[in-house]
Every structure is written in C-alpha cells, then in structure tokens.
From TrEMBL:
<dbReference type="GO" id="GO:0009279">
    <property type="term" value="C:cell outer membrane"/>
</dbReference>
<protein>
    <recommendedName>
        <fullName>TonB-dependent receptor</fullName>
    </recommendedName>
</protein>
<feature type="signal peptide">
    <location>
        <begin position="1"/>
        <end position="29"/>
    </location>
</feature>
<keyword id="KW-0798">TonB box</keyword>
<keyword id="KW-0732">Signal</keyword>
<feature type="domain" description="TonB-dependent receptor-like beta-barrel">
    <location>
        <begin position="774"/>
        <end position="1238"/>
    </location>
</feature>
<dbReference type="Pfam" id="PF07715">
    <property type="entry name" value="Plug"/>
</dbReference>
<dbReference type="InterPro" id="IPR000531">
    <property type="entry name" value="Beta-barrel_TonB"/>
</dbReference>
<dbReference type="Pfam" id="PF00593">
    <property type="entry name" value="TonB_dep_Rec_b-barrel"/>
</dbReference>
<dbReference type="InterPro" id="IPR037066">
    <property type="entry name" value="Plug_dom_sf"/>
</dbReference>
<comment type="similarity">
    <text>Belongs to the TonB-dependent receptor family.</text>
</comment>
<keyword id="KW-0472">Membrane</keyword>
<keyword id="KW-0998">Cell outer membrane</keyword>
<dbReference type="InterPro" id="IPR036942">
    <property type="entry name" value="Beta-barrel_TonB_sf"/>
</dbReference>
<dbReference type="InterPro" id="IPR012910">
    <property type="entry name" value="Plug_dom"/>
</dbReference>
<feature type="domain" description="TonB-dependent receptor plug">
    <location>
        <begin position="76"/>
        <end position="192"/>
    </location>
</feature>
C-alpha cells in the first residue's frame, strides 16, 4: 500500500509527532541508501515535488499511514541523531529529552537497590518508570525487573532495561506521551517508548567508538558494533546480523576534587541562641532568647571540609552508656567476652543497656543546653544545681529538677539569687517558665563562653557537653565551668589505641558530635559510586522472506549479555554508634578481650576506660570481596507472518506473530553473617591461643551461657520460606542459632584495627550472597487492517487487534539469604504467573478533506479507538505460618481503555490536534503475589507522639483507644519510656496521661512483612491533550508545534509502608478497621509491645490509594534553510523543545486534602529546554546543543522552605552544552567527535556544592568514532 505525498504534507506529519526538538530531519523511507538518506535529511525546504512514501504502522496507532502522521504528541530520535551523538546505550538516547524524567540509569546505584544495579528504565513525565511502556518494533519486550520490593524506587512493575536493545540497529525511537494505551493495552499510562529497528538492511558497517573525560582521564567508554545484511533468492529473502560490544568504566567520588571537598549541610549551633533585646525578667511570656523559628538563624548552614566522627576503619571508641539528651534505649549488638585471667571459667559479663548515640548533638552548643556542663541526667542536673550557688553555669534548656516540687524550689532560688520579682497571679507552670528565662538571661551559652574564652580546648567542651565520648576529669584552668575533658581515641590500622582530633574550631565554626570541619575524621567519597561499570554483548539476527507476493515471514532474534559491577558496595558492612538496629549497633566489648594488648589496656585506662566500652567500626575489611556484581542474560525471538489481500474490492492487511522472551538476572554481593560474627567476636585466651569461646567450652555449655533462651542476644526470629516435608512450600518462623558445624568452623575475629582479621575469620564471618530472577514472556498477537467503505472525504479505515500474553516470574536466593542469616532481611521466594487477554479496534474516520472540501473547514479526521484488557494469574501454593494451604489467585475485571483523537487542518499553514484518553496499569506479579518479604523499617514520626498527636482530628481519640486496648492485653498496665515503671491504665484519662507523660517513641527499627495482595485493581489514568501545529507558507522550512497535556493517575499501586500505614490507621474515622478508607486495614498490620513501642511483626500489603496530577505544555520548533552560493551544498537548521510544567501534585490519600506540590523543584522544574543548532556542508556536519533547566525552589512537604530552615532556599538555573562534529573522509569512511558538558558544569554554584545538587558529576568528556561501510 502506497500513498502519494508532497514534501509539505510530510513536514506536517513530522510536527504531528512533535519530533521537532530531539530529531534531525527524518529520512524519507527506509529503503533509501545512506547517501539519499543524508541528502533528504539535509534538505528541509518545502516544495511541490511529489514524493512516494510507504505507509507503515505508526507508533500510537495500528492503522498503516504515512510514517510521520499521528495524533499523540511526543518526540522522535532518529538513527542520524544516534550516530552524531555517539550513543552506546539505548537508554542514553532519551536521557536529555525534556519530558523524560530521571528514571533508573548507570549513574549512581539506583537508590542502592541491589536488584536494580545498573539497569536503565525510562520515566516519561516523571510519573514513574512502571507507567512507561517500552516496545521494540511495536511489540512488548520481556521485563528485566526483579520479583522483589527491593528495586529502584520500589517500583515493582514490568519495566524494560533499555541496555538490552541493540543501538546499532535502531532506526528511530518514537516517544509518545499520554494516549498510547488504546493501541498497546495496559501499562502505557504516561506514554510509550518504541524502539524501531532497521528493516531489510543491506550492506556492511563497522563502528568503533571510544572516549573519556578531559581533566581526569577516566570514565572511559568504548564500543564496537558491526552490522551485515544481504538479500538472497532474487531479493525475496533478507537476512541481517549485528553484534555490539561496549564497556563503561565506573567512577567513584574520590576521583572528583569537588567531591573531596566534602561540602554539605550541618545543623546551625546558633539556631535558637539569639538574645532577645526586649526581654523583661520575671514577666510572664517574655523570653531571654528569640524563638528559634523567628531569630534569623537557619536550622541548617552549609560549609565545606566536613569530616565524619562516628565510625572509623579500625574502630572508634565510645563509652558504653550514653544518656545525653536522648531517651535510654537498649540496642546492644556486640557480646561482652569473658574468659581472661580476670574472669576465670569463661563466665559472661551481663551487658548493660545503653542508648544509641545522637550525632546531632552540638560540640559547642550555641543555644540553651545543660544547666551545668557534665550533668547529663535529670538526677545529676538537680544535684549540680543544688551544689552551685549560681544554680547554673550555662543557660539551660530546662529548669533543673525531676519533679514539680524540685523545680518549684529551684525557681524560688532563681528569683532570690538574681533579685527578680516572682510573677504575681501566675500559674505554677508560668512561674517555672519565668525562672528558666531568668537563668537563661544571666548565664552564657557554651558558644558565648567560647567567644569570651577562645583558648578553651575543644575537648573540654566535648567531654562536658557530649555524653558517651571517652573523658577524664578536667584539671585545667576552665575546670570550674567545664569539669570533664574528652579523650578522643580510636584504633589505628595496626591495632594501637591512637588519639585523634575533632579539629580546631573558632567560636563561629559549626560542629556536631557526628560531623565537623577539619580534624582527623573519615572522608569516604570512595564509597560514593558516581557511575557503575558495565560490559555489554548484544547480538541480533533479523530476517524476512516473501513466501508469496502477498505473504511475508519475518523474524527478530536477540541475545544480550550484560554485566554490571559496583566496585564498592558497603551496605550493612558496619557496626555504628548511631544505629538503632540490633545487628548494626556498635560492638560492646571489654578491656580484657584477648585480642587487646597490655598497652591497649593501659591506653584505654588513661582515657578513663577500665571495663566495657563500645566500638564503632567499618567492617569492609572483614569480607573477601567488596564489590557487587549483576549479570543479566536476555533472549528474545519474534516470528510471524504478515501480508495483504483483496476482498470485496478493497485492500486488507494482516499480521500474526508470536514472541518469546526470557531474562535471567543474578546479583552477587558480600554480607556479614549474624550468628557467626557474634561467635567470632566472643573470643577467649586458652593456653596462649585466642579461640572462639564456643569452641573452648563446647556447643551445649555455650548455649546454656545465654540463659533459658539458649539464643545469642539480638538474633531475631524471622518468617522464611522453605520446602515442607510434602514438597509444598511453607512459611515458618525461623530462629537462626548456633550449630555444631559453626562451632567447629569458628575462627575468632580481630576487630581492633584495620585488616587484622585472619583469612579464616573472614571466611567464617562473611558470605557471598546471591539472588536469581527469571522472567519469561510468551505472547501471540494478531492484527487485521483495511478499509470498510468510502466516505466523502476518503475511506474509513480500521484496525482490529488481539493479544494473548503470559508472563512468569521466579525469584530465588541462596540458603544463607533465604533464612536471613545476614544483616539483610530474608529474601522472599516468589513463583507466579499472569495471563493477559487484550483486544481492540481503531478507526480512522475522514470527515472533511480530500475530494470533500468545505470552505474554511479544510480537513478533519477523527480517530477513535478502544481496547479491552483482562488480567488473571496465580502463584505457587504454600502453607502460611498457621499451616493453612493457600493458592493465591487473581481474576481481574475487564478494563476498558480508549482514545478519542482528532486532527483539524483548516488551511495548509495550521493544524489542530487533540485526544481524550483513558489508560490503566494492571497490577504486576510482584504486587499481586510477592511471597511475604521481610523488611526492616521504622516510623520516624509516630502519630501518637506528643509532637504529632494533635495534627489530625481523629488521632488523639484513636491513640487513646489503642493505648487502652494494648493495656488490656497486658494486664491493664504499660511500661513507661520516661522512667516511670509500669503504669496502670484503666480509663481514657489514664491513657491520655500515659501518652503525655510516659510515652516517648524510641525511634528503633523493627521487622515487618510485606506481601502481594489479590484484592488490587488497576491504576487508572485519565488524560487529554490539545495542540496546534504551524507551518507558515511565507517562511518555508519553519514548523512550530505546541501541545497542552493533562493527566491524572488514581488508585496508584504501591507497597503500604510503615509510616503511612500508621498515619492512615490513627487518622481514620473508622479505627481500628480503616478498610473503608484505604482498601485494606492498615491497623491490623501494626504491632506494639508492652511499652506501646512499635515492635517486630508488622504485616503490610500492596494497595491502591494515591493520586498524581500533571499538567504541562510541550512545545517544539524546527527551522531548516538551504544556503545558496556556497562551494558545497549547505544547510543550516535550528531545533528547540520546551517542556513547561504547570502542575505536579501528589496525594497519598488520593483525595488531595493532603496534596503536596513538587512543581518548580530540582526534580520537576518549571521549565526544561533543549536548543540545537545544526550545520551540514559538504562532508562536514556539526551541531551545538544546549540543555537548560529553570531555577527551582527547595521544598519540604511540598512547601517552599524559608530562610529560617536554611540560608539557601532555591537553586539557580543552569545549562549544559554539547558539541558534535563529523567528517566524511570518503563515501564509506566517516569520523565523529563529540564533547559533552563543554564548559565542565558540575554543580549548581554554592547551592549545589553545599546541598549535593550536582548536575554532572562525571565532568567534561570526549567521545570519538570511526565508521566504515562496505
């Protein structure tokens, strides 16, 4: 089927696809040779010359039509763009298109999610990668996304890794925004990306590509690809083969000087520390300091040169009990060893409770803090105040005294000593508040004291204001004010106790317990992975054979082998003093540990440590391989027949094909074994040899030493999956514990110093984990197209299509990971499949045009299409923890998707287009059938806390009700977290008092279980677009297109995480069953212990709830002009694409009552713009491209932050520049040179430098290619 078309009409088709920005002028037809292709693509003038253009299936429609017609706005990238930009990865082709979001890529580690290492997922409109449908030649591609929740962005859809697609064979990439679902079915909510490969290729071609950065001579990438195609059997058979290899080097943060500056934010010591010049002593409500939210001092400030002071490679040393300003919280991870000469008989020492360390504590407080330095508990504060005639040496944050009576006594002393009249007619609380303000007014903050005494050693402040650092009595000149002095010590690489410095601050230098400027702290940019390493092998065989003049067989066959390597994967490889996780908390050890020397003990004693201490260390030296590696093999085979026939005097076309795809991914990474690590730490000295205590005393005695539980403390029971005795998979609660084999293999580990563990110890405590994901896809599709009858304006065309698709996922892991034997949660085992049936019809209705002309109407065409999709599936049978046999099944309802599109061209110069669409995304296999995945989580903002309980109308009543219920289940009492013991709760008043006075969330992490849900329904997408295309005849070569688009996604699919689960529960008017609000009862999955603290056992499903609304304008302009009178044919061109975001609003509840806007942020800027200037003259081609992004606000919860939050409240606009120059040495040899980031733009000025807003951390780089054709 062919059509006669003028070049003018062809240009209109191009703008209808809106490819003006990201495309060069497209080639006329795929059968042209390259010379003709380049010639036509370099000429853009309008002419009356008729050109024969083959009708093909256009992306977004199944009705054959001229290649560049369509009603859905989008962008197109051609093979010429790919050649001149020197792309070596299909995912990179779309990265800089304005309407494409960040997605997943080789840059960074995709959020640290192991299963998504190095994948490249496209994200149209920044609505999420799961809502973009990726096609190859208009057909679905097997998904590479693993069957686990631990994937990039926790987006558990059917995403396709674009790295598997052969770059050398790409003819063009069509990117269509909203409106493709009616043609392709489910999942095309935000749009469609269709990689169209070259067809019936003839010739041979080899391309060599290589490059690296200019300044750093790193980030190397190189590629070679070759393509060979030939016709046989009198041109009835065409076979083309291609192969490509590419390699991309990894880049780490320590290879970039601007990152080695270690710039960042730190809490402002002066926030809340500005004096109130209008303070009136003794006046009720008058304050000595301005409120922290209105004192002109931001919460955060920015600086460079920051170092970390929480953990060290050989181990940083802390005191074992930190009270400070924190609640006491037991989180002991290490074991206190026995068995030294001082502790005969291998007796164990009871490990005391201790609280995790607060890294936010100010080294030198600039706001009211401790009344008397060194008094960290309420009892110590009261005692110090009683012994101090002035009551306080420093401006306190609270009035000393543990009880109201004690505070009243202190208040009386304050008014007497400072000669201030006691407020009259005031309440007791107001009197205490007034006394506190008097103390604050008459005593300095630590910063004010430092400013007056700049010679005070920093260690005196550290020891006196930060509990937990090793310290001794201060005997210096300032001992009266600062009674303690810190002795910062750690183990050096050789295992010696070594002193270190926190730096040399001035009175204005910021610094916290965890981070400060300068000194000897850790600088770990080598763990900052800027880009992972990738190695790709891709091979393709495509072919077609004309069986008859009307029937053609076609085949596409792909094999891809990709290896991605993260050279430094350190997740979980630490025991840190700030961790609230039992497994990762600092190690509690004793000075008599057998690996410590006499000199070690003497040095520790000099720092005041003669018993237990805690060790905070990085454990990367305890594994044999620090890297993480992912290998992914993909095969895909498409085979089918297509043809045309005549019937009833009309032409029809048909196609029948079957596609098979399989993707296998295996990821390997190192981890620390829980039980084995605890055993190896628990070492004793036997006859001069350090051995594991378990080996010295034997298994039975070792287990008995833990008491009745016979369990190593801190090793939590977990739900795992295993094969039962009858061969059916079952979920059981499993407690990992010591075995005889472990005892026999145990080798003691030396954690004092760096790299001091023996090889035997490393082999014992570490493991190389892996998981494997297998994804299989089979689908058959058929299409019938043709003409039904003639209308006055032309034939009414139709396309009928049907598809049967079956997809399977199998996710398995190694034995250690399966049972949760490391610091990662056990990996769920998932075996499931889904089957999708789809069918649709599309019409092309010419209303006006052709031979049916109406004045001032021109041409009008309507394109309605509708598609039906239905999903069903099931997972492998299993027994749950109660022993019940379950076979999860899903039978979805039939969903309708549709598009009603129209184009109207009243005159040749202008055309209008638009569409109204409905789309769906069906629940994925993971969302339906995830096999009970344990996870670690926390609820940082407890709705029932004193701070949050009144933020929503129903919270207080529901929290009170829950306290009553939990108390009733615990004998009518709950434990106090503020030191009050067991509290009797028999009434609402008791419960209210408990929440106000006896409940403080400890912020600890806990375990939960998230599972697939068979009650899910598809996501819904409602969208419409309206646009205009201008091609003025008075300015040949110019085209302008602009489209307004609007989409709302509702019933968003996602995992119900702990924080929103708690908020939905306690905010519900239907507590304790909020199914009516959110579709599932999130209250039923929440677990609290006898102290009302969140605890292990959360059970959370996937659910439908949230909504997102996007409104934007996508505008394109292109101009091309031939220059006359030059020695060579010369064409200049210009292209521009602007994506202007009008709205990006998200609602977790779906009602928009909780709406947050991320428009005008760094991730969703108001304006993204790409401009390209092109020149083609003789053998030379050149292009200069500018990618621009508008300035952006910094927001918190959707609201722009103010100066009180941080000094920088917005990011400046920026642009990146790219140069490409090519030269045809001969008709068959061609070279290209590309410079990316010409001006070496890395960060957004001081804002990016200090706030981690880096626009290109790789830097200015060059790429060169040599292409040869034969």
């Amino acid at each position: 089927m062919g059509a006669l078309m003028t070049k003018h009409r062809y240009w209109l088709g191009t703008t209808v696809l809106a490819g003006a920005l990201a495309v060069s002028v497209p080639a006329w037809a795929q059968e042209q040779d390259e010379a003709a292709r380049q010639s036509s693509s370099s000429s853009a003038t309008q002419t009356d010359q008729a050109v024969m253009v083959e009708e093909v299936v256009v992306t977004g429609s199944r009705i054959p039509r001229p290649q560049y017609e369509g009603t859905i706005p989008g962008v197109q990238v051609t093979s010429k763009d790919i050649t001149e930009r020197l792309f070596t990865n299909a995912g990179d082709v779309l990265n800089d298109i304005p309407l494409v979001g960040a997605g997943a890529s080789l840059n960074g580690t995709n959020g640290g999610q192991t299963a998504s290492l190095g994948v490249t997922y496209v994200d149209l409109l920044n609505l999420g990668t799961a809502r973009t449908l990726t096609l190859v030649n208009g057909r679905r591609f097997v998904s590479n996304n693993s069957a686990t929740i631990f994937v990039s962005g926790n987006e558990t859809g059917s995403q396709v890794d674009a790295s598997t697609i052969p770059v050398a064979l790409i003819d063009r990439v069509d990117v269509l925004t909203v409106g493709g679902a009616a043609a392709y079915g489910a999942d095309a909510v935000s749009g469609v990306v269709n990689y169209v490969l070259k067809d019936r290729y003839e010739g041979a071609e080899v391309n060599l590509i290589g490059g690296q950065t200019f300044d750093y001579q790193d980030a190397a990438r190189y590629s070679v690809n070759a393509t060979y195609g030939r016709n046989f059997l009198d041109d009835r058979l065409n076979v083309a083969v291609s192969g490509e290899y590419s390699h991309i080097d990894s880049v780490l943060g320590d290879q970039r000087d601007f990152l080695m500056e270690q710039a960042g934010s730190i809490s402002n010591p002066f926030n809340g520390g500005m004096r109130n010049g209008a303070f009136s002593p003794g006046a009720v409500g008058s304050t000595a300091f301005l409120p922290s939210g209105a004192d002109g001092q931001p919460n955060l400030i920015y600086t460079a040169g920051l170092r970390s002071y929480l953990t060290w490679y050989g181990g940083q040393i802390f005191n074992p009990t930190f009270s400070g300003l924190n609640e006491e919280y037991p989180a002991v991870a290490g074991l206190v060893p026995g068995g030294s000469a001082n502790m005969p008989g291998f007796a164990r020492i009871a490990a005391p409770a201790w609280s995790f360390f607060s890294s936010a504590l100010q080294q030198i407080p600039g706001a009211p803090n401790l009344c008397n330095a060194g008094a960290f508990s309420s009892a110590a504060a009261a005692a110090a105040a009683s012994a101090n005639p002035r009551i306080c040496n420093f401006a306190p944050s609270s009035l000393p005294g543990a009880t109201a009576a004690e505070q009243d006594a202190i208040a009386n002393r304050v008014f007497s000593f400072y000669n201030v009249a006691r407020p009259t007619g005031a309440t007791a609380a107001q009197v205490r508040a007034a006394a506190l303000q008097v103390l604050q007014a008459n005593n300095p903050t630590a910063r004010e004291y430092f400013a007056a005494n700049p010679n005070v050693p920093l260690n005196a402040f550290l020891g006196s204001f930060i509990a937990g650092l090793p310290d001794v009595a201060n005997t210096g000149a300032f001992a009266g004010m600062l009674p303690r002095t810190a002795v910062p010590i750690r183990f050096d690489a050789s295992g010696n106790v070594a002193a270190f410095s926190y730096g040399s601050p001035t009175p204005t230098t910021p610094g916290t317990a965890g981070s400060s400027v300068g000194g000897d702290g850790a600088l770990r940019q080598f763990t900052n992975v800027l880009r992972v390493e990738q190695e790709r092998y891709v091979a393709n065989v495509i072919g077609s054979y004309r069986v008859t003049d009307n029937i053609q067989f076609f085949t596409e066959n792909l094999y891809s082998d990709i290896t991605v390597r993260n050279p430094f994967s350190s997740g979980g490889l630490f025991n840190g003093v700030t961790s609230s996780s039992t497994e990762n908390a600092a190690l509690l050890v004793n000075v008599n540990h057998p690996f410590l020397t006499a000199q070690n003990r003497a040095d520790l004693a000099a720092a005041g440590i003669t018993g237990n201490f805690t060790l905070s260390r990085y454990n990367e030296d305890l594994v044999n391989d620090i890297s993480q590696e992912s290998t992914m093999e993909t095969i895909r085979s498409v085979n089918g027949f297509k043809g045309d026939f005549e019937a009833f005097g009309r032409s029809f076309g048909w196609e029948l094909s079957h596609t098979y795809g399989k993707a296998e991914t295996q990821v390997e990474f190192s981890a620390i074994r829980d039980v084995e690590f605890a055993m190896a730490l628990d070492a004793v000295n036997v006859n001069g040899e350090v051995v594991c205590r378990a080996k010295a005393v034997g298994l039975n005695a070792y287990l008995n030493s833990f008491g009745a539980s016979r369990q190593i403390p801190g090793i939590q029971p977990q739900i795992i999956s295993q094969i039962g005795s009858d061969g059916v998979r079952e979920q059981v609660i499993f407690q990992n514990n010591v075995t005889q084999q472990m005892v026999d293999n145990c080798a003691p580990v030396n954690v004092f110093g760096e790299g001091r563990a023996s090889q035997a110890a490393k082999d014992f405590v570490s493991v190389r984990n892996f998981f494997k994901n297998e994804s299989t896809q089979n689908f058959t599709q058929a299409t019938l197209t043709g003409e039904l009858f003639n209308l006055p304006a032309g034939p009414l065309q139709f396309a009928i299509s049907g598809e049967l698709r079956k997809e399977e996922l199998a996710y398995t892991t190694d034995e250690v990971n399966r049972i949760g034997g490391t610091r990662s949660a056990p990996s769920a085992t998932t075996f499931a499949e889904v089957e999708t049936r789809e069918g649709g019809i599309e019409l092309r209705i010419p209303v006006f045009g052709g031979d049916f002309q109406v004045p001032y109407v021109g041409s009008l065409e309507i394109n309605p299409s509708v598609r039906w999709t239905r999903l069903k599936g099931e997972a492998a049978s299993f027994r749950d923890t109660s022993g019940t046999l379950r076979t999860p099944t899903y039978k979805g309802e039939t969903e309708n998707v549709y598009t009603i599109a129209a184009t109207w061209q009243p005159i040749d110069d202008i055309a209008f287009r638009g569409n109204v669409s409905r789309s769906v995304r069906n629940p994925s296999i993971v969302e339906l059938f995830l096999g009970g995945q344990p996870f670690f989580t926390s609820i940082p903002q407890d709705p029932c806390s004193v701070t949050n309980i009144d933020l929503r109308s129903n919270r207080r009543a529901n929290c009170v009700s829950d306290v009553l219920a939990k108390a009733a289940a615990n004998g009518g009492r709950l434990g106090s977290s503020t030191g009050g013991g067991l509290i009797t709760i028999a009434s609402e008043a008791d419960a209210t008092s408990f929440l106000a006075s006896h409940y403080r969330p400890n912020g600890s992490a806990f375990t939960g279980l998230i599972s697939g849900a068979q009650t899910l329904k598809p996501e819904q997408g409602e969208s419409w677009t309206a646009g205009v295309v201008l091609q003025p005849r008075f300015l040949p070569g110019l085209m302008i297109a602009s489209d307004y688009l609007e989409i709302e996604v509702t019933d968003a699919l996602g995992p119900l995480l702990a924080q929103p689960a708690a908020e939905f529960c306690y905010d519900s008017p239907n507590f304790p069953d909020n199914t009516a609000d959110v579709g599932v009862n999130s209250c039923a999955g929440i677990r609290r212990d006898s102290n009302f603290q969140y605890t292990n056992g959360f059970e959370l499903p996937f659910f439908n709830l949230g909504s997102t609304k996007v409104r934007a304008v996508n505008a394109n302009v292109a101009y091309s002009h031939d220059i006359e009178g030059t020695p060579w044919p010369t064409t200049i061109g210009f292209r521009g694409n602007a994506y202007y975001l009008l709205e990006y609003t998200q609602s977790a509840s779906g009602t928009y009552e909780d709406a947050t806007s991320t428009r005008n942020t760094l991730a969703n800027p108001q304006l993204k713009l790409q401009l390209t200037a092109l020149l083609n003259t003789g053998r030379l081609n050149a292009r200069w491209t500018i990618d621009y992004q508008d300035s952006a606000s910094i927001k918190s919860s959707g609201i722009p932050i103010g100066i009180e939050f941080q000094p920088i409240v917005s990011y400046p606009s920026y642009s990146l520049h790219r140069l490409s120059v090519g030269w045809d040495f001969t008709d068959s040899v061609r070279g290209q040179f590309v410079v990316d980031n010409v001006f070496d733009k890395n960060s957004l000025g001081a804002q990016g430098y200090y706030n981690d807003a880096y626009v290109d951390r790789i830097g200015r780089r060059w790429t060169m290619s040599l292409g040869m054709k034969f």
